[in-house]
Amino acid sequence: MIALDGAVVCVTGGARGIGKATATALARRGARVWIGDIDIEEADRTADEIGARAHPLDVTDPASVAAFRDASSTDGPPDMVVNNAGIQIMGAFVDQKVELYHREVAINLLGVINGLHAFLPGMLDRDRGHIVNVASMAAKVTTPGMSVYCATKYAVAALSRAVRAEIASSAVTVSTVFPTAVHTELTAGVALDLLPTRQPEDIATAIVDSARHPRREITVPGWLSPMGVVEEVAPEPLLQRLKHLATLRRPPGHYDESVRRRYLDRIGQ
């Protein structure tokens, strides 16, 4: 259990979206927040808004993650880390450049591996700390049109479970958060008509609350938690039909490019 008032907390991908909402909520609880983001200008703006500190961070580069850890340590040993940075490539699997998928894997999965590998040893040495890995309901309910995204989030969930088993005898905790679709730039231009959605602040609340009440896996909203079991036991042809209906029979990964263009430019798609 981490008392946030005065705690040193690091948030990756903290300049926008869920990361920004989380950093804001942590700062309001009295935490000394460090925002790591590849877009340092936006990270600086966010940090100035909430009274945090920003540092350039490329989560795909272990040396960059280590530099972020070392910078935050000037305020004291990090008490909590939120591995949040991620991108989402959408569209039919065969229509996307493989280089984009490699980047998606590097950010969404290797970024979490790098974060764990940089921060966990010190926490274990101190026998104190809390790590939150942000996955997605896409880890539990596979979605046509975002195949590699689903794979990376599934892998984050599995990685978290394996690491939890390894450190079970310590006082260090690892929580995995599974948000539903969230109204951020990542979902810009995507039809969310038939999906349960939440605001970034809802996910931030779950992340921040996990510091005081650590749980292994946190689904937001909670009532979606059984969907992972449904995905495993229901006949796949039935699930395919239901998913087709849920997307209003649009092509896999369909989005409004005019609305999503800003996000696509930012992630290099």
From TrEMBL:
A molecular function (GO) term: oxidoreductase activity
Name assigned to this protein: Putative short chain dehydrogenase/reductase
GO cellular component, one term: membrane
Annotated Ketoreductase domain residues: 7-177
Family to which the UniProt record says this protein belongs: Belongs to the short-chain dehydrogenases/reductases (SDR) family.
Pfam families: adh_short
Keywords: Oxidoreductase
NCBIfam families for this protein: PRK07825.1
SMART domains in alphabetical order: PKS_KR
